[in-house]
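Re: that backbone. Tokens:
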């Protein structure tokens, strides 16, 4: 009986350790450095998660006295409308024993002027891995300027 008890205890301990490492998008959103979303305080982010989980509209007053709304929250992604012009989306991507966080920022100035940047971060340290401009119509090309 004591061997069975030991095996059960080891199994439960291992399961507990595995569950500690399985983080969701909400966990990363809570822990992210403030520099990635300077509009929001840590308490703003926590409130937004609480509102979403309670089934309420998830709107907070940001540091610029504007409204920021969490539009979507799941285990592996979330979407936050930071302002009228800025949408931030975050996705978690499991890679073997690590997690990569994809951070997509879309700045919409007008119907035809926008920029989308995708930045990848290491999930354990929040170190930037890469950054790519996916779409950019904010900068005018030389030939557009010459025509005017």
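Recovered sequence:
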């Amino acid at each position: 009986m004591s061997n069975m008890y030991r095996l059960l205890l080891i199994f439960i301990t291992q399961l507990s350790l595995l569950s500690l490492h399985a983080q969701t998008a909400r966990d990363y959103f809570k822990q992210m450095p403030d520099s990635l979303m300077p509009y929001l305080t840590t308490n703003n982010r926590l409130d937004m998660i609480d509102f979403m989980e309670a089934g309420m509209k998830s709107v907070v007053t940001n540091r610029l006295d504007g409204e920021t709304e969490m539009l979507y929250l799941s285990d592996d992604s979330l979407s936050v409308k930071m302002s009228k012009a800025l949408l931030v989306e975050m996705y978690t991507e499991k890679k073997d024993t690590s997690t990569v966080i994809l951070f997509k920022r879309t700045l919409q100035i007008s119907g035809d002027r926008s920029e989308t940047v995708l930045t990848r971060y290491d999930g354990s340290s929040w170190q930037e891995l890469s950054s790519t401009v996916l779409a950019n119509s904010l900068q005018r090309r030389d030939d557009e300027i010459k025509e005017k």
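The chain has one domain: 23-147. The radius of gyration is 20 Å.
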